[in-house]
Amino acid sequence: xxxxxxxxxxxxxxxxxxxxxxxxxxxxxxxxxxxxxxxxxxxxxxxxxxxxxxxxxxxxxxxxxxxxxxxxxxxxxxxxxxxxxxxxxxxxxxxxxxxxxxxxxxxxxxxxxxxxxxxxxxxxxxxxxxxxxxxxxxxxxxxxxxxxxxxxxxxxxxxxxxxxxxxxxxxxxxxxxxxxxxxxxxxxxxxxxxxxxxxxxxxxxxxxxxxxxxxxxxxxxxxxxxxxxxxxxxxxxxxxxxxxxxxxxxxxxxxxxxxxxxxxxxxxxxxxxxxxxxxxxxxxxxx
Length: 287
Fold this sequence. Notes:
The chain is mainly β and 287 residues long. Helix content is 5%, strand content 38%.
């Protein structure tokens, strides 16, 4: 009887490991499975593999190793290892990801080497408790948003976090809507700070006709941005026409052409900015 021993596998950045299962039919394993795990992240990853044939395990000294009933133990969020790609062929082998650990410096995160989330109107780089595990339980995360000319950060709010925005470069326009109809609209330039309280509806956009806008955002939550973001597009998508009509005091026909089932995109692109005026600075936040 084969003794199966849990094994910890270290996968270095930009490294792929492969495995081949080729079991004896008499033992009940009549199929072969090829497994490839690729680490596309900028940090080393540590995973735990159970039920490995100890006598067949050869570490990473060779590209292939033998294994039996491989399971990458379950438990962690799938998002934690969303950049590790697993490919199976020939047969199905149950695999779920459980644990990962930086093998370099847990306090260091190479943000500039990560892949930005790219949209028509700009890009987002982010570090949160998933991509930068040391942030877990620290109530902090950050993002760098770059907006092209005409780019808009979709109007939205965060249920769990306030945000502090530093305009790194460019010119930005902001609108903030609070309770009791309070609102504020203004232009923020490079070097300015903008604070958005938790749960407050807001947007910002590139106010320059030639230069990109770059904003550094600090959140007091470690969550992935998309897990703490409610945008205007999905909100309106789910509202019945008669509810919208009653809310705005308008005929239902006025809202019938609102698109439904749209994909929510955090960064949008305004096509025509040539003749658009910037909002006058107006502060109605204080009663």
